[in-house]
Design brief:
407 residues; OB fold (Dihydrolipoamide Acetyltransferase, E2P); Dihydrolipoamide Transferase; Chloramphenicol Acetyltransferase; seven-stranded mixed sheet; four-stranded antiparallel sheet; 11 helices; 19 strands
Length: 407
């Protein structure tokens, strides 16, 4: 017999522990080399664990277990022969589940016969019902022979015009390591930064005009859409060059300023919020920004994003508008010092050159660390973003949209 011990590989630098999120195989299954056998959560991302060899697998950790990098999580017997002439092991449980689902309603169809216990309450239940001024006969008991149990009494709701007998179930489940890390970082940001948020609004008429005029040709040539994120990313990188304090972070008693803009883009993935990074966004064209954001967002949503792709950002952009948010105060992504919040676009009446017109308007928000960013820089930064978006042809496209869009 030849046994291989599979150990947890290191997902990235500084990560010492992961959590078994889901086993994709069962104990005793035959697995093929490179087959995904588990999903593991780190505090950065969810990764798949592939089988290193083919053979019969023996699991050595349970779902939800926290395991150290390098710890053995399963054994694979490489000397075992592959089963032949039978359906894959993963198909059998599905058939069993279907049979159970069909059989489950049968006991419910026949109501238990009424007995002397039906509608009567246990002593503990009666005490609770008395406190609620309720009668046991008004409750459908779930105990033996229809007896009203203590749990029935706790869950019972006095009528007072409110329907009773509805579902009152609860579900308790452990948060994933990624979700716990996100929660920890959000609390850390609130507790360790002097966070303040300033707001402005943007008239997106000029951006919409450019998109409507060039989006078809842009997509036909580059294979990606001309979205709002490229305009906002380029407006942000320009504003960061004008106000470098916003593109900085605190390290102990020192302030670190960056002469490059690595823009973290918040993406909602199946395992929670992720923030992949667009590197050197200040050097990218509109096509480069759109292509990189699409690539990173797809990898994040497919669970393929790596730790390296989510670390090292200098500033974050989050777009709550895709979910319908009109206004919010985004939380800083530490150790960064600033985050721009985009919101939904609403047509509203606004004054333009002394005339009231209907325009596509968006509220934008900048949350920043007031310890190193003053009001002048924060407000000036947001005004610079607004100016670039309201006059994109001059300030972002150098008065040559075709060249800027590489058409």
């Amino acid at each position: 017999m030849s046994i291989l011990e599979m150990k947890v590989p290191s997902p990235g630098e500084s990560i010492t522990e992961v959590e078994i999120a889901t086993w994709l195989v069962k104990d005793g299954d035959y697995v093929e080399k490179d087959q995904a056998i588990a999903e593991v959560d780190s505090d950065k991302a969810t990764l798949e664990l592939p089988a290193e060899v083919s053979g019969i697998i023996t699991l050595k950790a349970e779902e939800g277990d926290a395991v150290a990098v390098g710890q053995v999580v399963c054994l694979i017997d490489t000397s075992a022969a592959k089963p032949s002439g039978s359906a894959p092991a993963t198909e059998a449980p599905k058939a069993e589940v279907k049979e159970e689902v069909k059989a489950a309603p049968a006991p419910v169809a026949a109501a238990p016969a009424a007995t002397y216990a039906t509608g009567s309450a246990s002593p503990a239940a009666k005490k609770i019902l008395d406190e609620k001024n309720m009668d046991a006969s008004s409750i459908q008991g779930t105990g033996k022979d229809g007896r009203v149990t203590k749990e029935d009494a706790i869950n019972a709701v006095p009528s007072m015009g409110t329907p009773t007998g509805g579902p009152r179930g609860m579900e308790r489940k452990k948060m994933s390591m990624l979700r716990r890390k996100v929660a920890e970082r959000l609390v850390e940001a609130k507790n360790t930064t002097a966070m303040l948020t300033t707001f402005n609004e943007v008239n997106l008429t000029a951006v919409n005009k450019l998109r409507n005029e060039y989006k078809d040709a842009f997509k036909a040539k580059h294979g990606v859409g001309l979205g709002y994120m490229s305009f906002f990313t380029k407006a942000v990188t320009r504003a960061l060059q004008l106000f470098p304090d916003v593109n900085s972070m605190i390290d102990g008693q020192e302030q670190i300023k960056f002469d490059f803009a690595d823009i973290s883009v918040a993406v909602s993935g199946p395992k929670g919020l992720m923030v992949p990074v667009v590197r050197n966004a200040e050097l990218l064209s509109f096509r480069g920004v759109e292509a990189d954001i699409k690539r990173l967002a797809t990898r994040a949503r497919d669970g393929q994003i790596t730790v390296d792709e989510m670390t090292g950002g200098t500033f974050t952009i989050t777009n709550g508008g895709v979910f319908g948010s009109m206004l919010s105060t985004p939380i800083i992504n530490p150790p960064q010092s600033g985050i721009l919040g985009m919101h939904n676009i609403i047509e509203r009446p606004v004054a333009v050159n002394g005339q009231v017109v209907i325009a596509p308007m968006m509220y934008i928000a900048l949350s920043y660390d007031h310890r190193i960013i003053d009001g002048r820089e924060s407000v000036g930064f947001l005004v610079a973003v607004k100016e670039a978006l309201e006059n994109p042809t001059e300030l972002l496209l150098n008065n040559d949209p075709k060249r800027a869009f590489e058409l």
